Structures are given as structure tokens and as C-alpha cells.
Amino acid sequence: MTSTLRPARLLVVDDDDDIRALFGAVLHRAGYQPRLASSGRQALDEADELVPDLVISDVSMPGLSGLEVCRALKAGPRTAQATVLLVSALSGEQDREAGLLAGAADYLVKPVRPAVLVERVRALLEARA
Length: 129
What we know:
By secondary structure, the protein is of the alpha/beta class. The chain has a single domain, classed as 3-Layer(aba) Sandwich (Rossmann fold), CATH 3.40.50. Helices cover 45% and strands 17% of the residues. The chain has 5 helices and 5 strands, in the order βαβαβαβαβα. The protein has a 5-stranded parallel sheet with strand order 2-1-3-4-5, with helices on both faces. α2 packs parallel to α3. The chain starts with 9 loop residues before the first strand and ends with a helix.
């Protein structure tokens, strides 16, 4: 949690229904109330309304990729402070570097174990505090 006054605002973005639901359920069990988005465009709309503390986004999505979402969030006046965690099946060092250059705070390679996801979310939220 980012504050004792309010719960952390999380947004999970993945075009794969199963992964999106899994991440949402894992985070819910960990005490978070994440919003879910199925596309980059929906993520940006949700983020503008929610003003998330943390966005967990897939990289490879049709339409807007996770890299494009990350760059747009960082450029947005309401969302520039959002921490972004990119998650992808792309495992090359150049893929990770591209994510970090786009403004992500971290990059995880799928498949991601639930405990690792929760640990990274907690660590990234604590770093914001």
C-alpha cells in the first residue's frame, strides 16, 4: 500500500483473458483491488480515470503495445508518476532494455510465478512511498 490513507491503485493490462484474470486474482488475494484492461487503448482510458500508482502491462498486444502504453503514461500529465511493470514472453536483453528505456521501472519475463508478481508489486509500491 502506498499510504495508510488509501489503498494502492493498480491497473493490470493484458490482451490474454486468462493471464489478465490470473494476475487480477493473484493481486486480489494479496489484498489489492486491481482494475483490469484488455488493450492498450483501454489501459490509457482507465489510467486517465484511475490515476494508478502501478500499471502492470503486457508488452506484446495488438494496437498499442505495452511499450507504447508505458511511453504514453509517462508523457501524460495525470499519469506521469505511475510506476510501470512490464511483463512479457520476450526474454532478450534488448527487450528488457527497450522496456526500461520506455520508462518502465521493472520487466518480468512470462511465465511469472504468482509469488514473484506479488513481491515485485510490493517492492515497487514501497519504492514509491
